[in-house]
Amino acid sequence: MLKGAIFDMDGVLVDNMQIHVEAFVEMARRYGVTFDHERMMSMNGMGNGEFFKVLFPPEVVERVGVAGLSEEKEALYRELFASQLAPAPGLVELLEALRAAGVKCAVGSSGMKKNVDFVLDGLDIRRYFDAVVCSEMVARTKPAPDIYLLALSLIGLSADECLVFEDALAGVEAARAAGIRTVGLATSLSREALAAVPDVVLAVDDFATLSPESLAKLV
């Protein structure tokens, strides 16, 4: 029986991955770094700490600090995305239906709290979620399971009672490590690529075709 649904944010609640890429491109320009798009996309779903340590030279990371780089990059992302902020197709309707069905919902994001607040409050969807987990609340971000394990604890449910909604391989790995099956959103990867990943029980383009009844069959 489906009792809980845990949503990643970037690429799931909002289709924003291109905006994150644009913000990283600008950060690379500001710091004189050659931007490696392919490598960045291979790390999709991970936290900023991992991104900057891999994509930026050690001397830049040491001089500015991961926290400083993250704050600058995410402020730029919010500035770029503010005029385009919109929920993923079918999201609000599904959240309404899940609430009506008594399914608890949570956000489990590797993003910083400022970004999570920006999306939840900017879209006025915070009221649909019983718990919100962001990067500052855990020791390890995805692909470690910490975010999803904390979300399970906060909504008081077990892994086999829940589904995770993810778009990135790091997030699917985090959900798998937490023992939760995943519905894949094809915003960063194709449906075919997502469907081939272990523990992805369904891959869809967006939320428009989903309902509590159809999701209950996946648990």
Describe this structure in words.
The protein folds into 2 domains: 4-15 and 87-216, Rossmann fold, CATH 3.40.50; 17-83. The chain is α/β, with parallel strands linked by helices and 219 residues long. It contains 11 helices and 6 strands. Helix 7 (113-122) links the parallel strand 2 (104-108) and strand 3 (131-133). The model has no long low-confidence stretch (mean pLDDT 93).
Compile the SSE list and pairings.
Elements: E1 4-7, H1 17-30, H2 37-42, H3 48-55, H4 58-64, H5 66-81, H6 91-100, E2 104-108, H7 113-122, E3 131-133, H8 146-155, E4 162-166, H9 169-177, E5 181-185, H10 191-195, E6 200-204, H11 212-216
Parallel strand pairs: 1-2, 1-4, 2-3, 4-5, 5-6
**How many DSSP H or I helices?**
11
CATH top level label of the largest domain? Alpha Beta
Order of secondary-structure elements = EHHHHHHEHEHEHEHEH
Distance between the termini: 6 Å
Uncertain regions spanning at least 5 consecutive residues: none
The CATH topology of the largest domain, please?
A: Rossmann fold
The shape is globular
What's the name of the CATH homologous superfamily of the largest domain? HAD superfamily/HAD-like
Helix/strand-derived class?
alpha/beta
